[in-house]
Amino acid sequence: MLLNGHIALITGAGQGIGRACAVIFAAQGADLILLDKNPETLTTISDEIAGMGRKVMHYTLDLTNLENLREAVENAHKIGLIDILVNNAGFDRPGTTAKIDKQEFEAVLGIHITVPLTLIQTLLPGMRKAGWGRIVNVSSIYGIIGGKGEVAYSTAKAGIIGLTKSVAKECGQDGVTVNAVLPGLIRTPTIETFMDERYKKDIIANTPLGRIAEPEEVARVIAFLSSEEASFITGIALPVSGGWGI
Q1: 153 a catalytic residue
Q2: How far apart are CA 87 and CA 84, in angstroms?
Q3: Residue 136 falls inside a structural domain
Q4: So what's the pLDDT on residue 194?
Q5: Cα–Cα distance list, 80 to 12, 57, 83, 199 (Å)
Q6: Model-level pTM?
Q7: Which domain holds residue 50?
Q8: Domain tally for the chain?
Q9: Fewest beta carbons less than 10 Å away: which of 84, 104, 125, 168?
């Protein structure tokens, strides 16, 4: 029970990596605050966590509505001090540098950078006061290698790495660690539904382990970085990519 006694807030908790984090965190003893925009998937995972005997609150909302986001987080404090934050939610708007729409570009940066910053600003004071906290930001291997036709997503994911390192330097003396994980190709509903098989095969061909990963393989790394076991790790950008990008 590595996370027993802690409360974690996870964004994008309805599916994929966020859902896997919720299950693994609960299995390790954490109580949970789950945020997602899909009411059906969010309710399903929330009921599952409750069935595991953990305290859980869930909020269906558009995270980019920052006023509603802050209100939900303030309300969530009723369950106790939130001392683990997993910034996982995100979406993609593919496009090349020449063709990307400015509004879509800014929307991608908003969900991947502005929303995590807002949550960090909201939750960090409580972590600092307690003298313990864990923040894990989900970036992408594209944040360090870039992606053709993925200028918005790659830029946003690189920005998360910069945010991670800056916040880590600011709050390390307060007992708060801040890290990023950089997934490669993961078997999420979005990838399974929208990515063309040609692109999947190309990425797998460039992945030394030669396969797609399951969401749980990333979630276990996030859980480790959220635990006391990772007490002397901060400011890292850790690829969980099967070697893609080395």
Answers
A1: yes
A2: 10
A3: yes
A4: 84
A5: 21, 11, 9, 44
A6: 0.97
A7: 7-239
A8: 1
A9: 125
